[in-house]
Automatic annotation (TrEMBL):
Top-level taxon in the UniProt lineage: Bacteria
Protein source organism: Candidatus Pullibacteroides excrementavium
GO molecular function, one term: hexosyltransferase activity
Pfam hit, one: Glyco_tran_WecG
Full protein name: WecB/TagA/CpsF family glycosyltransferase
Amino acid sequence: MQDKRVDLNGVKVYPFASEKELLDYVDSCPGILVAINAEKILHANDQTRAIINRNIGYCDGSGAVMALKQKGYKEVRKIAGCELWLKIIQRFLKEKTFYLVGSKPQVIEETVAKLKAEYPEIHIVGYRDGYLKSEQERLDLIADIVDKKPGVVFVAMGSPKQELLMEEIQKRHKAIFQGLGGSFDVYTGHVERAPEWWVNHNLEFAYRLLKEPKRIKRQIYLVKYAWWLLWRKL
């Protein structure tokens, strides 16, 4: 799979054909999962490219999927990060331990409580919110994870902050890592995800725009990305 990574504007993406293929890969080759969408491809810079290319970039958006299909990877599938972390829990529930970092104190508490209710067998060895107020708090967090040796670490702090933290932890402890952005907020109902119809028709971005019109300044990039796809510039 390492040799099958596909270059999209300098961003190397794994063309996983299913969630199972991705899960099998990280089971045999644990690493840091990084969600890739049109925005990350279009706005890639030297730092973000390096972070993604050191790790396991997977298609989290339909824009990335369309670009890969243009390059001949017809079986590639969109794998939503806000669903993937729960699939990871389901897959490794009985064999691995878990550590969660991110979001506000209330949200992380609710996330852990809901996980324990939905997955009674889950073994969460540690968790904390994503507001690291000092260098000492960051070092204490890393030391705690290294000491408790979880098999899976979820970090929901936004990119590239979450990836840089995961890379620092990974230097001292090997595990499956996934950056989650705002997934804890979605899981606990603090942020509404698009209804299934919008998701299934690759219109999740449009639903979010209807809910948050101020996102137009951020999502105008989709026009440029569509132009790149049309003229095969990726």
